[in-house]
Records
---
Amino acid sequence: MTESAQAVREFKMPDVGEGLTEAEILKWYVQPGDTVTDGQVVCEVETAKAAVELPIPFDGTVRELRFAEGTTVDVGQVIITVDTGGGGAPAAGPAAAPAEAPDAEAESAEPQGRQPVLVGYGVSESSTKRRARRSANEAPAVRAPAAETPTPAPAAPVANGVPVSGADRPLAKPPVRKLAKDLGVDLATVVPTGEGGVVTREDVHAAAVPQAPAEPAQAAARPQAAPGAQPAVAPAPDARETRIPVKGVRKATAQAMVGSAFTAPHVTEFVTVDVTRTMKLVEKMKADKDLAGVRINPLLMVARALLVAIRRNPDVNAAWDEANQEIVRKHYVNLGIAAATPRGLIVPNIKDAQAKTLPELAAALGELVGTAREGRTSPADMQGGTVTITNVGVFGVDTGTPILNPGESAILAFGAVKWQPWVHKGKVKPRQVTTLALSFDHRLVDGELGSRVLADVAAFLEHPKRLLTWT
C-alpha cells in the first residue's frame, strides 16, 4: 500500500440508534477540500428515530463525499473519505448518486435475520427489506486519482452579498434544518430571530411563504399542526396533486401501525366521565406553594389514574410472545406518551413510571414532551414501552380508536374536556366531561379485564380523592 493510500481514512455511516439499518443524509456541512478536525460535525442524517448530526473522529482534508444529500445509506457504508496526511487530492465534489458495493459483497456484509428497530416499538417481526438498487442510468461516484491536480473547493455560499464560511453556517436545531430542506429554504438567507442568533421554525416559515398577520383573536385560537403532519409545500398553480416521499419517522410509524393492526386483535371500549372534581384539584395544586415549579395538568392526572389502574389489574401490563406462545407480564410500567414533533408523531416513554411520586411523574412527563418537541429524544427513550397514553383532546377531539404500539397490550386515548349538561346529585348541571377510549390486545386482555381497567381510570378521575385510598 502506498503512502498516499495510507493517508486516506474512511468514515462509515454509524448505527446512531440500536438496531437501525439505514439513515438519510439531510445536509453536508463540508465539501471536498475543506479542513476538518476531530469532533467536527460534517453532516446531518435522519433515521427512523431522530435527526442526528455526525462528528468525524479524525483530522484532515475532505477528499470525497460518497453520497449526495437526500440519499438513504446503509449502516456501515463509507460516506466520506479524508486525507489525514495531506498527500491526496480532493475529489471533484459530492457524488450525484450513492456508490454501491457489488451485490455479493453487500449481501454478505448484512447479518442474516437482522431486524430493524422501529420508533419506540421494539423489534419488528417482519423480515428486513433492503432499499431498491440504483437504476442503471444513475452515475456512480467518480474518485479522482491521487496524481490529478486538486480541484478548488466550491465557493462559499453567499447571504445578502456576504460570503458565509463553514464556521459561520447558520445556527439552527436539526428539526429546523429539516424543515428548511423540505420547504426549499436556504438557511444562509434567513434572518434569525432566536436567542443567540438561532434560526427558528417561524423564521423558516416566514422566509418560505410571507403571510399577512392574522387577526389577534384568530391567531390565539389557531390550533397547532396535527401530529405527524408533513411540512406544507406550496404546489405549482396548475398542480392537481403533491407527492411527499415516505421516510424517517413517518415510514417507521406506518410500518409499525400496519404490523400492529394486522397482528394483534384490537378491541376498543369507551367511557364518558365527569372530571369536574379532577379539574378543580388540578387548579388547587397549581396554586399550592409546595408544588411551585411542578407542571400540573389534566394529562398528569390521567397518567396517575392509569398507573393506579394497572397496579390494581396487573395482567393488563403484559406482552404477547408469539415465538414461545407465552404471555409476558411486566412488573414495571414504561409509560409511553404520544408526542407531536416537527418530524411526526413519536412515542417516548417514562421508565419505571409506577415507582414515581406525583411530582416526580410530573417532572418526567414535562421533560419527555419538551425533549421530544425539540427533536432531542434518544433512541433508548423510545424503546421498551409497556402501555401508552395518546392525548387527542389537545386538538379538540372527543376520542378515537387508537392502534396499539407493537409489543404493548393497551393504549388509552384521552379526549377533550368540555362543559356539558350532566346529571349531578339528581339535577342537571353544567359539568366538565371527557371521553376515554381504551384499545387492548384481545389475545391477552379479555373484555372483563379491559373493562375493569377503563372503569378504574374513570372512577379515579371522577373522584380523585381515591388518590389517597387507592395508592
---
Amino acid sequence: MNKVKQYLSYAAGAFGHDAFYATLSTYFMIFVTGQLFDTPDKAFNNQMIGWVTTMIVGIRLVEIIFDPIIGGIVDNTRTRWGKFKPWLIIAGLISSVLLVVIFTNFGGLATAHPMLYLVLFGIVFVTLDAFYSFKDIAFWSMLPALSLDSSTREKFGTVARFGSTLGQQGVQIVVVPLVMFFSITFTGVHTETRTGWFWFAVVIGVIAYLGALLTAVGTKEEDNIVRQNTEKVGLLEVFKVVGKNDQLMWQAISYIMFALAYVVTNSLLLYYFKYVMGADSKFYLVGIFTAIEGMIAVAIFPTLTKFLARRTIFFSGAVVMLAGYVLFMVAGNNLPVVLTAVTMFFMPYPIMFLVVLMTITDSVEYGQWKLGTRHESVTLAIRPLLDKLAGAFANGVVGFAAVVAGMTGSAKPSDITAQGLHLFKVFMFYGPMILIVISVLIYWRKVTLTETRHAEIVAELEERLQEK
C-alpha cells in the first residue's frame, strides 16, 4: 500500500481522535461547571459538580486495571482485517454516540432527579470510557505494526502527532464560536447554552468517527518474522508483560507526571481567559497560536532527532515549558504576554510527546528481546492509559479548582477574590511545574532505551528468530 496514503490516513485518525480526547478531558468539565449545573442553588451546583468529578476520577482510576487487559484482548484479536481495524470501527462508533449523550442533562434529570441522573451518568460514562479505551489502544498500538524501522516509525509518529495537534488545538479554536453559533441558531440566546454544547459534541463525535474510518481503510499492518513471534496472552500474563518491561515502566512513571502537568494547565486555560481576564471571546487565539506552533514543532522533530538524542530533546523541551510557566505567572491580563507564555508552554509539548511515544513504541522490541514474545497492544496500551489517567486527575483538579476559586456558573471576573485567584494559580502553575521537574529527573536517570540500543535489539531479534 502506498506509504503516503498510509501516513495521511493515520494522521486523519489522529486528528479525530485527539479532537475527541480534548473534548472529553477538557471541555466536558467546562460544560459541567458552567452549564449543566447552573441553578440558583449554589450549594446544590457545587455538590453535583463534586459528585460528577469524583465519579469521573474513580472510573478512570479503575482503568489502571482494565486498560492492559483491553490491550491483551486487542493483541488476541484475529480477523481477516487484522487485530486493530475492527476495534476502530465498532468502538469508534459507540464512543462517539455516547460522547454526545453525556453533553445533555439526560432529559432534565440532572436537576429534577439528581440521584437518578448520577446513576445513569455513571453507566453511560463507564460504557463510553470502555469503548474509547478499545479504540484508543487499537489506534496507537498500530504504530509498531506499521513498521519495524525506527526512522519509518518516526514518520508515522510525526504525521500522527501533526494530525492530533491540529485536532486538539482545532477544538480550542472552534469551541467558543461553535457553542455560541449553535446557541444562537437553536435558542436565539446570545450566550452559551446547553443546546450549544450539545451540538458542539455532535460535530466532534462525527469528526472522530470519520477519522477512525479513514485509518481503518487507509493503513496496512506489516508482516515480518519479528511480528510473527507472538502468542495469545492470558489475564495474568498481561500484567507480567507490563511489569517485567522495566524501560516501559520507568517511561510510564515519567510520562504520567509530565502529562498530568500539561493537561491540568491546558484544561484551566479557558477558565483563565473567562474568569481572570474576562476575555473568553479571545480564547480562539490560543487555538490558532498553538495549532501553528504545534505544526512547526512536529515538522522539525525528524530534523531534531538527526542531531540530538531523545534525552536531550526531552530535557530541553522541559526547560522551555518551565520558562513559559514563569512568564505566565507574571502576565496578568496582558493578552500579548499571555499568548507568548502559552506559546512557550505549548511549543515543546508535541516534540516531547513524540519522544515518549517513540520510546514506548521501541519498548515493544525491548520487551520481546527480554521476555521472548512480542506484545504490541499490551505494551502500547500503557501510553493511552496514562493519558486517560492524567485526564481523569485533571478533571478532578479542574472541578475542585473551579469550585474553590469561585469559577462556576455565571460568575464574573469581578466575583473572583484574591484568595480564590491565588488558589487557582496554585493548581494552574505551581503544582504542574513541580510535576515537570520530577518527570525530567526520572526520565534522565532511569530511561536508558536509546535509539542506538533499539537498533541493536532489533538486529539481535532478527538473528535470533532466523536461527529457529
---
Amino acid sequence: MNRPIRFVSVFAALMTFALLINLTYSAVFRQPGLNNDPHNTRVRDAEYSQNRGDILVGSTAVARTTATDGHFKYLRTYPQGAEYAPITGYYSYYFGRTALEYSQNAQLTGNSDSQFLQRVTGTLSGRKPQGGSVITTVNAKAQNAAWNGLAGKKGGVVAIDYTTGAILAMATSPSYNPNQLASHDLPATQQAWKSLNTNPNQPMSNRASKEIYPPGSTFKLVTAAAALESGRYTPDGQVSTPSSIVLPQTTNRLGNEIDCGNSTVSLTKALENSCNTAFAKIGMSLGQDKLREQAKKFGFDNTFDSDVPMAASRFPGDMNEAQVALSSIGQYDVAASPLQMAMVASAIANDGKLMTPYLTQSVRASNLQTVWKHHNTSLSQATSRSTAQDLQKMMVSVVQNGTGKPAQIDGVTVGGKTGTAQTTKNASPYAWFVGFSENPHVAVAVFIESSNTDRSEIAGGTLAGPIAKAVIEAMR
C-alpha cells in the first residue's frame, strides 16, 4: 500500500516541479513575447488603459496618446496622418501594430528592460504605468520634401545618413491615415480596414521598404562594383558598346535607350549614358556568381536586425547567359526596394562600408530620462575603399555629364544613377533615381511606380531625379 502512495507522491512532486519550471520560464523568457503578441486580449485591454509613449520627430509627436472618457482610457492619434504612416505604422485594437508601433512596442508601453527601474519606482510610489517616448532619426524637412515630391504619384522615397545608417526620410504614396484604424469606434475600424485592403491603389503598401520592384539601370551600380572589384576593369578602361546585342540562345535583341556610340567608351562613360549593351556584356563576362556575391554584400537576399520595416530584395539564382545579361542591367528577376537601393548608394558614398539602417535614435522614459540610445553598427564592407571612391567619381560624372543632370545642386557635390525599368507591355515603366551628396551626408533612392506623366516622357532622371534633389536641398 505504501509503495503506490509513494509513487503517486513522487509523481505529483515531479509534476509540481515541472509546473514551477514552466511558470518560471514563462515569466522570465516568454513574457516579452506574450506581452507583444497582438492576439493577447488581456494585455491588449490593459494597454488601452495605459498612457502609451509618443513617437517623436525632433520635438514633434507624430504618434501620441490622449485621454478619453470612453470604455478605453486612452486613444492613439496620428497628427500628421498619412505622411508618417510608413514610419509610425498603426496601433489598432482589432488589427494589431505595425512599423515602430510594433518594433518599439515594449518601449512605448514602458515594459522594456531599459525601463525596469522606472517601473519599480513607479509601483512603489503608486504612480500609474506610462510608456516611454521614441525619438526617431527622421528629419522633418527631408520627410516633407519626399512626401510632397510624391504628390500625385505612386512610389516611395528613402533617405539615409550614410555615415551612421540613420533613416532621414521614408515616404510612400499613396498612403493611408492610421487614425482610421486606431479609432475606438471598433465597427468603423473594421470598415476602414476592409476599404483600405480592397482599394486597388493599395494605400497600405509601404513602397519605400516593404515592396520590391525591378531596379532597372540603378542596378548597374552593383554590376560596376563587381567589375571594379574583379580587377579586370577600371573607370577609364574601355568597354564595348554595340548598338544592340543578341541575347545568347535567343533571337531577342537588347539595345540602348540612348546612342552609346556603337564602339568602345570608358566604363565611366558607359555609366553616364547607362549603356545596356556594355553592362550586359560585363555581367556575362563576370558570371552570375560574382554578381550575386556583390549584390549580397550590398544587402540583397537578406533582412537584418533593425526597427526599419523591410522586405528582402532579390538577385536570382541558376540563370542562363541571357538571364545573366538582363540581370546585369536590373531586369529579368532582379527586384529591390527603394531602401535596398538607398543602401547601395549609401555604401558607395561611405567608402564601401554599409551601415545598418535604423529609425530609433533614443528612448526617453516618462520622467524624461534617456534610458536607451542607438549604437551604430556596420552591416558589411560592400566594396573596397578604392572601388567605392572610383564609383563615387563615376556617379558624380553621371549627374554632371550624363542622365542624372536633373539632380544637380549648385554648390553641392551630388552623385547618382538613373533607372527606367520595364514591367509589362501594357504598363508604364518604373522610374528610379539613386544617389548621394557629400554635404549633407545623405544617400537617397526615389522610385516612381506610376504618375500622370506621358509614357514617352518617363525616365529616372527627369521624373525621380528632381525629388532626390529636393530631399537633399531640404537638409542644407
---
Amino acid sequence: MSQASGVGELDFGHSAAAATALLEPTQIGFLSGSTDGPKVRYFTMGANEWREAEAWPPPGFTGTPYYLHADGTLSPDAPDADAAPCAFVHDPDDPVPTHGGGLLLPDPVNVGPRDQRAIEERPDVLCFTTPVLSADVEVTGPVTAVLHAATSAPGADWTAKLVDVRPDGRAMGVTDGIVRSPGDRTRHEIDLAATSQTFRAGHRIRVEIASSNFPRFDRNPAMVRADHTVFCDAARASRIILPVRAS
C-alpha cells in the first residue's frame, strides 16, 4: 500500500495522494490570504475522488434517519410500535478494544479503516445492517446517532460506529463517536463527526453499538458490570442520521 494514497487497511488510489490533489499549494495560498479556488475541498471515500464545494456541508445532502431494528436490520423504514429491545452485558474490565479509526496511537498500524469483523463477534457489540444496496449511497457531512438506551449502572458510555460492509465480507470502519451519560438518562446523542463516503452498490451499511472503545476513549469510572438495553420500538426509535445525497 502506498503511504501517500492509503491508510489503515485500504488504498484509496493514486488520486488520494495530497501531491496529486495539489493540497500543499492550496494551503499555502489560503494562509497567504488568497481567495482563489473553492472554499471547501474534500475526499469522498468509496468513490475515491477529491471534490469541491462552496460550503460545508455541501448542498444537496439531506439528513436521513436509518433506524435500528430489533432483528438486526438497519433501514429508513420506521420500526414497529411493539418491537423488542436489544440487550447486552457490559464489563468494564473487558472493554471493546479500539481497532482503527481517525486517531493517533503509539501503534501506527492501528489507525484508519480496518476490518471490524473480530470486534463484531463480541457479545457486547450490537450490529445493525442494511440489505445489500442496489445503488450507490453517498454520505457526506456530519453524522449523528440518536440512541434510546438504558443501563443498570450509575453511568455509562455509549458508542456508535459507521461501517462499510463489502461484498467479500470485510466490515471497514468509516467513522465513530462516543457519549458519556448518567445512568438515569435514556436518550443519548452521539456525534460521529463528519465524513464523506460512497457506499457502493453491492455493499451494505452497518452501525455498531457498544459501550466502550478502549484505549481511544478512557473507561468511564462510573461503569460497573451492568445490563444495557437499546430500544428499537417506534416510540423510542434509535437511529443514525446520515447526510445522504438527494436523488
